[in-house]
Every structure is written in structure tokens, then in C-alpha cells.
Amino acid sequence: MAEAIRFLLGEEERALAGISPTLTVLEYLRRHERRTGTKEGCAEGDCGACTVVLAEPDGAGGLKHRAVNSCIQFVPALHGRQLLTVEDLQAQGGALHPVQQALVELHGSQCGFCTPGFVMQLYAGLLENRLTDRQAVKDWLAGNLCRCTGYGPIIEAGMQAGAARRPSARAQGLTAKRLGALDDGTMLRYQHRDQQVFIPCSADQLAGIYLAHPDAVLVAGATDVGLWVTKQHRVLNTLVDVSRIAELSSVAETGEGLAIGATVTHRAATDALAKMHPDLGELMRRFASIQIRNAGTVGGNIANGSPIGDLPPALIALDARLTLRRGSTRRELPLEDFFLAYGKQDRAPGEFVEAVFVPRLTQEVRFGCFKISKRFDQDISAVMVAIRIGLRGGSVEEARIAFGGMAATPKRARAAEAALTGRPLNDAAVEAAAAALIEDFAPITDMRASAVYRLKVAQNLLRRFCLEQSGPDRPATRVLELAHG
Ligand SMILES: Cc1cc2nc3c(=O)[nH]c(=O)nc-3n(C[C@H](O)[C@H](O)[C@H](O)COP(=O)(O)OP(=O)(O)OC[C@H]3O[C@@H](n4cnc5c(N)ncnc54)[C@H](O)[C@@H]3O)c2cc1C
Ligand code: FES
Ligand code: FES
Q1: Counting atoms of ligand 1 from 1, which one is nearest the CA of 266?
Q2: How far, in Å, is the centroid of ligand 2 from the Cα of 199?
Q3: Helix, strand, coil proportions of the chain in percent (round to 5)?
Q4: Would you put residue 468 in left (φ > 0), alpha (ψ -120 to 50) or beta?
Q5: What does each C-alpha distance from 282 to 3, 467, 477, 483 come to in angstroms?
Q6: Residue 376 to residue 384: CA distance in whole angstroms
Q7: Which of 27, 253, 271, 428 sits most deeply, having the most CB atoms within 10 A of its CB?
Q8: Minimum-distance ligand to the CA of 263?
Q9: Ligand 3, residues 46, 147, 151: which to mutate, most atoms within 8 A of Cβ?
């Protein structure tokens, strides 16, 4: 087993030892490397000031790049990867990179605190060729906050930066080779004092390690676990980083549906979900930010059991099935049965989420989902609903309606479903279903919404979905432009 976290910091090789495995990448950069260009704004993934770019081999001789929030990534996430910070963009004689030059020329910076984060997010957009038009740049920057400049000049700069030259395929190939040599493909066990982290490379290794250490904390994208450390100051003694397991990180599309591995990131799942239904694409577009979607995983969104996670209601309405694995034993269950109570899921010690299967929608089935949050971008839902209705001859044959934000778990609206089933989809049925939501849910009041608002908005969303199904111009999706990224 390897013993050090090996990676490239820019072009320089590093082998980390003697530091905590829950040190964040941001703290490591600022305190250990004195790379203070990367800033801390919120320490919870919300503001983008700490954005850095991670590169890893793409399996075809080149590199794939991801912008992530360094404030919530732990240092083991660097193993076998290249870490690029704002300092790396200025390496050649201090000359500004075209992204930086564009921000200067178009007055995209005032106090400059947010600027390194914007630079790195735009640099990632350049590498991925995503800065193609105004809307694309706006979507791309949804996870970067600026308090003083105003977004107009920054967006202009992003459009100008999109035309800059990308690093050559040859340069990327050389870096990919260097990264290949750093990572020998075996499981890493890294220890510092009484903290240790395992980084398995296969599902079998994960199953074995987790069985041996059932109290370990699994870390996938760390977009929740990172905050346990930065905000709750929890000390995590044993971690298993599941993010390097190729078998768990692919989406298989078949005639029956989508098999999504647990460690597929939200970014990587978006296209397949959007193809299944455009509303799912819009949901993913509004899921956090690009940086969070680049790290956060489908498995983490399910396993954390949050009552306000966005994917569980959508997947429950789609009748998804979850595969759990403990040692060599697998079991499958309907996703809705996984959520038992607040903070309690049907998962035994040493058992992990391996995959989720999402059946394809058929022609006769109508589907829609809505996310209600205070901000359009980068916000957690106050209420989220997904509705799947099977119609035959104008009557509702089957209804599956799942809500987030209305109960202690993601939950189906059984009374509302019963009120619709077997009836024509007319005003009387819809009003009966809206009234039945009062039996289904007793939502709470919190900082996102009041109980009264939640119930009202839930009823109105149900009405709206049903109206859309009966109207002549049934829209493909309700949100403005097409998804970008
Ligand atoms: C700024 C910000 C914005 C966000 N916006 C949204 C949003 O819009 N919508 C939304 O739904 N969520 C949002 N989230 C929450 C979070 O990003 C998601 O829940 C994400 O999917 C968690 O995945 P992860 O891989 O990062 O999980 P991690 O943080 O790595 O893990 C989360 C939990 O799941 C467990 N776990 C992870 N993988 C497995 C597995 N394979 N088997 C068993 N247990 C596992 C971990 O042990 C931990 O308990 C946001 C978070 C932040 C910080
Ligand atoms: S410091 Fe705000 S996202 Fe990291
Ligand atoms: S320039 Fe001051 S926060 Fe953006």
C-alpha cells in the first residue's frame, strides 16, 4: 500500500506526509505552501472564492479538468491528480493569462477578493470550452459570488476569455503521463497520528475495507462531509475515500433505463438524466454550482438521507431501485424504502450504496419536476416535487408523486396519488389531490420557508403540473434556456 499522498502542484511533484487527512486543500495551500492567491470566503462551498482546478488522466492519453471548491476538499482528494491554482496561471514571467487580462481590460474586479475564484472558474470553462455565449457564461459562474464589481463586466470578461488558446494536447499528454507514474493503482492507506484514510481503487477493495472498518466515514465528493469539518469542527478518525473507483463512477444506458454508479458526479450524470427528461436536465442545472456538481455524487445525495436533497424525490417518482453492498452480499430495494426516518436510512454497518437504477419513461407516462428555492442558482430546495403519471384514455392509471422539503425524509404523497388514480385528469380530481396533500404532509417552518408556504406551493405545483398535461401546448420544460454543463 502507498503511504504518501502524491500529486502535482502545478508542475511540481509533491508527496505529502505528516499532515491531517482532513486538512482542506485550501488550508494546505495557504498554510503549508503559502499560495495565498486562493481565498477563503465562506468555507462551505457557497461563494467560489477558493476555486481551484483538478486535472486527472482521461484514460485516452489526455487530461480531464474539474473546477472544485478547495475549502471543502480534503488533501487525499489530490492523490494522483494535478492541482492548479491562480499562481499557476501567471507562471511565465508574471505575464497575465488571457482570462486575467480579460478581467483587467473589462473592469471585472474591484476589491479583488473574489477574483482568483472567478479566474480559476473561467480558466476551467476555457479548458472545457464552455464559455460559448452569455447564458453559458452565466450558468458557468453560478457558484462564484462578487460583492462589489457587479456581474456585467465579469460576464463580458468570461465571453472574451472563452476565445483564448487552450493548453496543447501534447502538454496535456505529458502531464497525464507524469500523473500515471505518481499513482501506482494500488489502494492508498495514509495515516497521521490517530487519523487514517483509505483510498480503494475497486469496489471489492472498498467492500473489504468498509467491512473491516464499519465506523469509517465514507467520503465521495465531500460536499457534505467537508462541512462537518469546516463548520461543525468534527474530528473524523477513519475515512474511506470512494472517489477513485472506476466501476462505481459510470452511467450505463440500456433500453430499460439508467444504471448510475454511486460515485458518478452530478455533472457526469446530467446528460443522461436530461436525455431521459428535460426537466431532469433543468433540475441538475439548478443543483448547486458547477464546482459542487463536479465533486458531489449521486450516491452521496442519496446516502446522506437529507429531506431536502434534490435527486431522491425525482428518482422515487421514477420508481428507482437502489443497490446496496456489504462485503460480497448485495441487496436491492425500492429507493423510497431506503429512507426510514430523519437521519435514519436502511443501511447496515459496513454496507454502502453501490448504484441506483432508474427505469426509462415510456410514451404513455407524463413526468415533471419542480424545484422551489429562494435563489434560482446555487440554492437548496425549500420544496421539490417530482410527478409521474400514467394516463390511459384520459384517465390516470398510475400516479407517483414524491416531495422533498415536506417531511423528515423524501416522501411520496400517497393520499394525493390515491385521489388522482382511476379518475379523469380534470379539475375535480386535481382539487381532490391538492386537498389530500394536507393528509400527506405536515411540513415545518424553517429558514427556507414557512409550513403554510410549503403546503401552498406544493398544492400549486401539483395543480400546475396537471394543467400543463391537459393544455394544448405542453411545454418540454418550464425553465428558460437549455442546460449548459
Ligand atoms: C454549496 C452547496 C450547495 C449544495 N446544493 C445542493 C442542491 O442544490 N441540491 C442538493 O440536493 N444538494 C445540495 N448540496 C448538498 C450536497 O452537495 C449533495 O447532497 C451531494 O450530492 C453530496 O454528495 P457527496 O458525494 O459530496 O457526498 P459526501 O459529502 O462525500 O458524503 C455525504 C454522506 O453520504 C455518505 N456516502 C457517500 N457516498 C456513499 C456511498 N457510496 N455509500 C454510502 N454512503 C455514502 C457519506 O459517508 C456521508 O455521510 C449542496 C452542498 C453545498 C456545499
Ligand atoms: S470559501 Fe466559499 S466556496 Fe470555498
Ligand atoms: S471584486 Fe470585490 S468581491 Fe468581487
Answers
A1: 21
A2: 25
A3: 35, 25, 40
A4: alpha
A5: 42, 20, 8, 6
A6: 13
A7: 27
A8: 1
A9: 147
Q: How confident is the model at residue 485 (pLDDT cuts 50, 70, 90)?
A: very low
The residue with cell 475495507 is 209
Residue 238 phi, psi (nearest 5) = -125, 125
What confidence tens digit (pLDDT) does each residue in 164-173 have?
Answer: 998 899 999 9
186 within 8 A of 1, measured Cβ to Cβ: yes
pLDDT band at 128 (very low <50, low <70, confident <90, very high): very high
Residue 32: burial class (beta carbons within 10 Å; 0-12, 13-18, 19+):
middle
Q: Are 284 and 293 in contact (CB under 8 A)?
A: yes
How does pLDDT run across 46-62, given as a tens digit for each residue?
A: 999 999 999 999 999 99
Vertex 21 angle, CA 38 and 116, to 5°: 10
Query: What residue ranges in 153-228 does DSSP mark as E strands?
Result: 188-192, 195-199, 217-219
Ligand 3 neighbours, Cβ below 6 Å, are: 109-115, 146-149
DSSP state of 78: G
Tell how far the Cα of 38 is from the centroid of ligand 2, in angstroms.
10
DSSP string, 300-329: HHHHT--TT-SHHHHHHHTT-EEEEEETTE
- The cell numbers describing 212, all together, are 473491516
- Identify whether the C-beta of residue 36 lies closer than 8 Å to the C-beta of residue 23: no
Report the pLDDT value the prediction gives residue 326, as an integer from 0 to 100: 98
- Substitution candidate for ligand 3 out of 42, 100, 115 with most atoms within 8 A of CB: 115
Ligand 1 neighbourhood includes 56 CB (under 6 angstroms): no
For 420, other C-beta atoms within 10 Å of its C-beta total 24
DSSP classification of residue 395: E
Encode pLDDT of 184-243 as tens digits: 889 999 999 999 999 999 999 999 999 999 999 999 999 999 999 999 999 999 999 999
Give kind and range of the element (H or E) at residue 238.
strand 238-241
Residue 249 and residue 247: Cα distance in Å, rounded? 6
Q: Which atom of ligand 1 is closest in space to residue 223's alpha carbon?
A: 26
Which residue is associated with the grid cell 441506483?
A: 356
pLDDT band of 484, cuts 50, 70, 90: very low
Can you give the pLDDT at residue 470?
A: 74
Question: Tell me: the pLDDT tens digits for 141-150?
Answer: 999 999 999 9
